[in-house]
Amino acid sequence: MKFAIVDFSLLKNLTSKVCESLDKYNISYERVNIESSSGYNRIISGDFTHVILRAPCDIYERKNVCDEVAFVLEKYTNTKVYPSIKELMPYENKRYLNFVLEACGLPFPKTDVFLNKKEAIEFVENVKLPLIYKSNIGASSSGVRFIRHKKDAKRLINNAFGYHQYIAFGNSPSKSILKVNVPEIGRAEKHFILFQEVVSFKWEWR
Known about the structure:
Blueprint: E1 3-7, H1 12-24, E2 29-33, H2 37-44, E3 50-52, H3 60-76, E4 80-82, H4 85-88, H5 94-104, E5 111-114, H6 117-126, E6 131-134, E7 144-147, H7 150-161, E8 174-177, E9 180-183, E10 193-196
Parallel strand pairs: 1-2, 1-3, 3-4
Antiparallel strand pairs: 5-10, 6-7, 6-10, 8-9
């Protein structure tokens, strides 16, 4: 057996925990950073029998690369991937998770995903507020906004779709720096928007 642990620069503290578990049972492994071309090619080569991935949850493009690697390894090599691509895809991908839950007939807060600006505007004109806006990726309520007014929902829609598909700045989560909310422009999401109904609950069981 030949194990590899896929590293992302921002996740070394998390992959270190995986290393500790493998060390405990004397399982040899190699840590590979796929943010470099050589590391990416090293993983895709199929030299490893088992690959352990910890998908990033900060930027969609990074998460997408992780999913692509898992897919290629599972479908085109004999590598065992943990978690599997089926388990990785819904992780930090609210849009995809919505499709999965809907297909499986599982109960969850009503969610509407729009890839069309006109339909999104029409939805907001007729929906009962308040409403929740969620970014596709992001944990700990990052990218979540409580919408009380239609003008705020329309502003999010206009940001997502722009006035033309090639001129869209997207919606960015913000981070407090010295008590000032600074938009994280590099995490902007465009060309779709996701709204969810407001559900009252006492606490969250997770």
